[in-house]
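User: Show me a protein chain along with its predicted structure.
Assistant: Here is one chain, sequence first, then structure tokens.
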Amino acid sequence: MQGFMTGTGRKRVLVDGNSLVYRSFFAIPRLTNREGLPTNAAYGFTTVLRKILTEERPGRAAVVFDTGGVTFRHEVFREYKAQRPAMPDDLAAQLPYAREVAQALGFELIAVPGVEADDVIGTLARRAEKAGDDVLIVSSDKDFFQLVSDRVLVLRPGKDVRYDQGTVASEFGVAPDKVVDVLALAGDTVDNVPGVPGIGEKGAVALIKEWGSLEACLENVGKIPNKRHREGLGQHADDARLSKRLVTLNTEVPLPADAGEHPYVGPDRARAFQLFEKLGFTTLLKDYLPEAAVEAPPSIERLERPAAISAFLARARTAGKVAVFLDANASGFGLALSPAEGVYSASVAELADGLRAPTVLKLGHDLKSVRVRLRRLLGLSLEGLGFDTMVASYVLNPGKRSHDLEALALEILQKRLGTGEPLPGEQALLPGMTGPLGDAGDGPRSTESAERATAIFRLAEKLAPRLEEEGVAALYRDVELPLIPVLADMEVAGIKLDVQTLRGMSTEMATELDALTKDIYALAGTEFNINSPKQLGEILFEKMNLPSFKKTQKQRTASTRVEVLEELAVHFELPKKVLDYRSLSKLKGTYVDALPLLVDPRTGRVHTTFNQTVAATGRLSSSDPNLQNIPIRTELGRRIRKAFVAEEGALLLSADYSQIELRVLAHLSGDKALIEAFRAGEDIHRTTAARVFGEGSGVSDAEQRRRAKIINFSIIYGKTAFTLGKEFGVPTRQAQAFIDSYFERYPKVRELLDEIIKEGRRTGKVKTLFGRHRYVPELGSRNRATREAAERVAVNSPIQGTAADLIKKAMVDLECELRGRQLESRLLLQVHDELVLEVPEREADDVSKLVREVMENVHPMEVPLKVDVAMGKSWIH
């Protein structure tokens, strides 16, 4: 937006509320808050109002809304707005919140029964203009162009264009005082303003430019050369005059004298914060911290002398719990024994040693990281992990964008963290300096670290009861919290890598890539950058003229994504070679070349990071390196896995749940046929093949099993018949018949999936067997594609999430057994449904039996859980 016009009077902003809400609703993709309330219109509305306040700084600011009902226009023309479609339910639900937003941001809210908002705005604009004030009308409605003058401008937020008299004349085609004549001739299908048939806006502009006014056109109708225009005006003169009356704004509405006269004094911070929190506008919260909520900083003390540290440790042992925050470089501790008292100490080693006992419960944010860093830096094992605010936040809402401490403090405590101010008497470090508390440029973090510790204490007090209220306390207490030290110890342990094997593979793969490159160039008839989608697209779709199935959204050029190349590869050799090249290149770059660089020189092992609070389904992920994506079933994937090896005198044990998601499906659905198949130890894919395809299908047994396997997992992941048909190479109708046949044989599965979606629509969330929930508000979307995608998520989440819960619980139980029996075997990795342990050879037999026993009996199920166990010097599957 440009700045406000120059003027001697006060600056006023008049916002067409309905226009802005409607525009936001259709301009912004569907958003929802945690409870599933649609919020896209309210968010767009809020964004524009904030932008206006920031850039215009008005002395008066009002938002005017329609009230509905009959107005004078309905009285003169009964069909006025008769063709307008009903307001979408998702939009109607947001109107009350838009009004609240306006008031919370400090706008005067105006709505006059029986009078359209346009007329109210027109009256206020003319009244302000007469008083010598500058006016900015915010609306996408062209009707307001008739009000533009030296002191009245119109801002169209969609175009971000400000219309003065010159802009109206150049873009609309006529001066503001002629706008109503053009609108009367052109009509308006949205408002059902009849206008003159056959003229349109372009023709109307030409007529008014030539004759000067509507009345002049009607008086000279016989002289108009365009036959359609001439006949239209001749036959519809009354409609034209009626239309002019309908589009002319009434600028003399009897309004109260103080309407629009309230000085703008700023937002109601507390109201705005509460409203934006409810709507889920978390990025806005920091700007509206209620003034009343800005408390005096907690009492903060710096622990330096041994006597002070000892006294603090004694108090901590008496209290039985302490909130801890470890500086990023582990140079100091922020600690709190209450939500109002924080301390800071650079004596990390002494404090950690004094606090590590399980008798003092530690409250923290990302305690896994604290435990890992203390183990690596000091060799200390921090026990007694009592509450983790990051993990608690994740359990409460796994789909949340951020579980950062700063975001939680802002949302829950209404507190902004991070002043970084030194304690009284502590010298601040200038950028580039080094000191005892940090690296170059870090500066003293005493106050900030202590402040974070007190915030953690307060968050723990607030999140603990919410876990109970949401019904996820048991999941947090029995699975997620005890998993923290297990994952921390796995990260510290790492896994040994045979670097020489990978280097040899790298050389071989480089040779294979060179050969593939030559093949690709030969097939293309020219050299090009194979990694460039643009150049590849030109070769495939312009030079070779292959069919293009999809286009990229931004550039609308033929797509070279994997699914497109896979379709082409069925019939053409070049895309097949490109897929091979991409796969080989990715494995080489991501694993074969990258893994040796990640070996810690101090341990000789690779230490991945396990992410406990990322996946919305509850699954763990890993990073630096990501070990989840190493292919299992390809030869290259198996060779990469073999480069992960055991230490001398030990073996790697791989324990993999067999078809755990299908077993979960059987348990949750209670389908007798599915349960009996698993209880009888049948090959579930062959059983499904026999039930779905039957005899005489003309398809080989192997192909039937392959298709049955795809169908089994398609049910879990909600694949459509269209997608299934593409995988099978059969028509969609035939693929749908396969799905229908599946549900006929396993009817309880259909009932389960229907019930999951039904419950999801009712509550806005779906749950696993252990109570883990995932919010799926898009189930109520008006957009079919969005809704169907949400249904697939809703169906899959309870099944995949329950499988994730089972393997997490198995990790906790197994770690407990290993430590309880004082075994040296240790967990190293968790990848999908598989656990990898390093086992001393002398413990191999016992641990193999123990792992199978623990994993297969992790939770009572209607079907047996089966675990495949393999052992060797390397990671095999």
